[in-house]
Design goal:
By secondary structure, the chain is an alpha/beta fold. It has 9 helices and 10 strands. Strand 4 and strand 5 (66-67) form a beta hairpin. The two termini are 33 Å apart. The model has no long low-confidence stretch (mean pLDDT 94).
């Protein structure tokens, strides 16, 4: 199994507060790694460090054996292969659905408008929104916006997808439609790192669960080990709430 991402001894402070403490982990092709833990445990910061949206203080992030923190690395070229889906969608409200999806392929991959449109329609169909291609973003529900955000990320043909609490801003009835799209991606073998509070979903789709607390990886294992036989007291007390 090919290693896509390797994180070594990653640390991050915001001011005086250390939010990540010496984090190390490996992600292999086809892995679905879900990070769970209380709010403030460092999950989102870790995810945002993986594509340098937050810059770590120390440590190493190797993506396809390229050190993202080396100043000689072409960071933009590597970032194109790391798809990111945010909790708050981060769509351009002044553009319609298909324009949101074609902007990066045209600008960064130098794709023609016709090719970018064809690609966008393919992925909008995948997320069940092909008929919404020319709708304005502000006319969509939260679940539809998040599915557009997933289609937009897929248009860059990423090697790995990062999901930062993709359903936390959604009503329960809209959560299911986004989780279904993510399950379909899992079935297709997409490599994913997911931060989520949806424990049942994490249990169903992940091959590895990481439990974080106070900036540390406290426990790591497959879903059966973590959910049914957690070893650490902190993991046990966190999971009792669900």
């Amino acid at each position: 199994m090919r290693k896509i991402l390797e994180v070594k001894n990653l640390s991050k402070h915001f001011g005086a507060q250390q939010v990540l403490k010496d984090i190390s982990l490996n992600v292999y092709e086809g892995d679905v790694v879900t990070i769970i833990g209380s709010s403030g445990s460092g999950k989102t910061t870790l995810l945002r460090c993986l594509n340098l949206l937050n810059e770590p203080d120390s440590g190493q992030i190797l993506f396809n054996d390229n050190d993202l923190m080396n100043i000689d690395t072409n960071l933009d070229a590597l970032r194109m292969k790391i798809g990111m889906v945010f909790q708050s969608f981060n769509l351009f409200n002044n553009k319609n659905v298909i324009e949101n999806c074609t902007l990066a392929p045209m600008k960064l991959l130098k794709m023609s408008k016709a090719d970018a449109n064809e690609l966008a329609l393919k992925f909008l169909e995948k997320v069940g929104l092909k008929e919404f291609a020319y709708k304005r973003i502000d006319t969509l529900s939260g679940g539809q916006k998040q599915r557009v955000a997933i289609a937009r990320a897929l248009c860059m043909n990423p090697q790995i997808m990062l999901f930062d609490e993709p359903t936390s801003a959604l009503d329960p009835e809209l959560t299911g439609e986004v989780l279904q799209v993510m399950k379909d991606l899992v079935d297709e073998g997409m490599t994913m790192i997911i931060v989520t509070h949806e424990m049942q979903f994490a249990k169903e789709v992940s091959n590895r669960i990481i439990f974080m607390d106070q900036g540390l990886i406290v426990e790591e294992g497959n879903p059966i080990e973590i959910f049914n036989h957690p070893k650490e007291e902190r993991t046990k007390s966190f999971l009792k709430r669900f």
